[in-house]
Amino acid sequence: MTSATHATPSPQDPFPRVPDSADAVLEGLDPEQRAVATTLNGPVCVLAGAGTGKTRAITHRIAYGVRAGVFQPATVLAVTFTARAAGEMRGRLRQLGAGGVQTRTFHSAALRQLQYFWPKAVGGEPPRLMERKMGLVAEAAARTRLRLERLELRDVTSEIEWAKVTQVTPEDYPAALAKAGRDAPRDPAETARVYATYEQLKRDRGAMDFEDVLLLTVGILADRPDIAEVVRGQYHHFTVDEYQDVSPLQQRLLQQWLGDRDSLCVVGDASQTIYSFTGATPDHLLNFRARHPSATLVKLVRDYRSTPQVVHLANGLLSQAHGRAAEHRLELVSQRGPGPEPEFVEHTDEPAEAEATAQRIRGLLTPVAEGGAGIAASEIAVLYRVNAQSEIYEQALADAGVPYQLKGAERFFDRPEIRQAGLALRGAARAGGNDGALDDADGLAGQVGAVLASTGWTPEPPSGSGAVRDRWESLRSLVRLAEEFGRARPDATLGSFVTELEERAAAQHAPTVEGVTLASLHTAKGLEWDAVFLVGLTDGMLPITHAKTPEQVEEERRLLYVGVTRARLRLTLSWSLARSPGGRAGRRPSRFLDGLRPGSAVGGSRGGAGGVERGSGSRARKPRGPVKCRVCDRTLTEATEVKLRRCEGCPSSMDEELYERLREWRLARAQELGRPAYAVFTDVTLIAIAESVPGGEGELSRISGVGAHKLRQFGPDVLALCAGEPLPEAPGEDSGEAAEK
């Protein structure tokens, strides 16, 4: 078994020495990574599982090609999807002696080309790039006499972005939506009108959005062969990271860059496709060898990140997956020593789950000498499905005195205290030996600390938490970075450290801030921690309620897989049975944990309905024969289970928001009729409705507890609530025709 230290750089060595030869670049690579690095000609496809060192493999491939004289640095373009990932790749290449290689996101590479060639291709200045589009979408909606709430505005904006990256025009949007099987957040015709008006407003104002950057660049390269040849003369070799996330528009741009050449290396993992809602598709990755029959295929399955226990859980999670991506899943093999088993924890309610998580984290922070695990706060993460879940964990960690940072919040180098610190450090570097504050400083870290003292920083942390503690943690991260930089380069000066900071700021390669990370599962992709807490894992949250098609449910499973594979050593998966203390304990653990958590079995097919379970069975009030659980197929005997058509212990697919709306409606109707609430519908019947979400009278009538009379009296209201529509206006009703008893 290969040692982990041979395949991944040590986290304690962020500034390794530059290899002194091309062969030295290959040192420490495992056989598969070496195969990637040394295959320099023709198309190469790398299928790389989580934690297998894919970025290491492709950066060493580029560096080896450069150091061996096969690639000229200026002719190589490496593209990925985030500025952070591009900055990390740029930093690694610099450390390997291949600093002249261009590493960019698709958008930044296209924007540079668009700005350069626009005067020649079109004339004049290119359109102004808008940083955000929601304001203009809101104006477009208003012009079409459509008033959108904030969440509705976000949905329409997302639809416009999807349409553009899949190259769908406003007039073709409704048809394309139906063809793609995509759920529309609102009337497609309305969205198409807003989309068309938005495009016109942009043209009128000489503006473009991020999708236009790609569209316009593709258009210029396709229409102007002379310009395309200039670009192809500049870049001869291409590398694409996270290729499973490429959209049709990005693939078209890549094809324009390539022309008829095949010097292309792509790397990705279909099991980590979690952005299909933005137009991303793994098809380009999975079809790569069909398009390039001569391609070399390398599979990376040695997992250097996670323990065998975590890897076993990750493999088990994917073993239950379905669909094309699942057919190409990679079976990971851990290269680490054994660790603790993943923990599955059930809580009574959300506050209890958050409080318990905070206390467990506090225990992990406790030094080993005091009986704890001694894990640094920056090596712990709490991951959740939606950002709205973060607030309760922020409060719980603050109450426990645990520092934390929100991933996706203000970028590190944009923080006021970091900008102020940068100015102070640059001034001190220019002053050189003439700055008296540095006379007694010990080493580079001492000099940085002395300079930051002028901005109010002290070696001792402030008491309490909040903004003051956040500011201190940010400045402390600069001092820690100076310590690491000084250890790696004993001759480093304050000036060279400032240069390092400027390069990191350009690449958004922030130093580590000492605090527990709070992040959504989508935001966590590409990151890793020693200890990971996956919280709120209930059906309806993961998979989320609006994941209805089999494809959408499978993407939710892949999202959980991404979360599991973020953990190096410790993994805790938790859920709560109720939202609030004293609330109804109607939640069930995520169906994705079936067969993985102790005491559970793999559930039966749910018809791929995601958060919506369609009812089935006889129309009769009572079943004529044995009733089977729709999840595990066991014969049901208890009355409540027969009503729900599932075992009490089997996962529920209930739409909790619908259930709460039904309860509020039931209370109002009961008050109108002067009857107890259960006389309208019992709790069990409401649960059954919220689980099956009937789409018509036929489906509603098949639910136990909904007889012919109740169907006539309450059916229109219930179906309207299920559809998310306003309640129909009903004529006065005779209270004598009350609900069935």
Provide structural commentary.
The chain is 45% helix and 11% strand. It has 741 residues and is an alpha/beta fold. The protein has a six-stranded parallel sheet, sandwiched between helices. It has a six-stranded parallel sheet with strand order 11-16-15-12-14-13. It is globular and about 90 Å long. The N and C termini lie far apart (69 Å).
Q: Which stretches are low in confidence, meaning pLDDT under 50 for 5 or more residues running? A: 1-12, 604-625, 731-741
The main sheet comes to: 6 strands, parallel
Shape: globular
Q: Could you tell me the number of beta strands?
A: 18
Structural class: alpha/beta
| Amino-to-carboxy terminus distance | 69 Å
Spatial extent as radius of gyration: 29 Å
Helicity level: 40-55%
Number of helices: 30
Report the mean per-residue pLDDT as an integer: 84
- Note the beta-strand portion: 5-15%
